[in-house]
Amino acid sequence: QVRLVESGGDSVQAGGSLRLSCAASGEATSRPCMGWFRQAPGQERERVATMYTRNGYPKYADSVKGRFAISQDNAKTTLYLQMDSLKPDDTAVYYCAARSGVNCHTDLSYNYWGQGTHVNVSS
Questions:
Q1: Which of 30, 56, 65, 92 has the CA that lies 20 to 30 A from 16?
Q2: Which residues contact 70 (CB under 8 A, 6 or more apart)?
């Protein structure tokens, strides 16, 4: 069983930085795909960044390229999202997600989800 718990959400001013963390339980081999998604009020959930946990190979949404970075610790028990140069448009609930299988970047049918952490960016 995979359990995901996010932390690190906060309120910041535009241009600031935050680092989100996701503590993951369960064998790393059961969650070869992990990622961060977000949902802003009144909008659909969207992929922010996904990653192959085997080698850390990432993919980012165009809107966050060059500003956000997804990573994991050596034990593969914690997933991170470093967010720099934050904009008001980044305001959302951020979710950590995981799934088994392949095609981590093209198959977004993630089935394990955390409870979400709020990020609010003011101008």
A1: 56
A2: 35, 36, 48, 49, 50, 51, 58, 60, 79, 80, 81, 82
User: How would you write the pLDDT of the chain (123 residues) with one tens digit per residue?
Assistant: 899 999 999 999 999 999 999 999 988 888 999 999 999 999 999 999 999 999 999 999 999 999 999 999 999 999 999 999 999 999 999 999 999 989 999 999 999 999 999 999 999
Looking at residue 5, its amino acid is V
| Burial class, 76, CB count within 10 angstroms (exposed 0-12 / middle 13-18 / buried 19+) | middle
> Kindly report the CA angle at 47 between 43 and 48, in degrees rounded to 5?
105
Q: In whole angstroms, what separates CA 120 from the centre of its chain?
A: 15
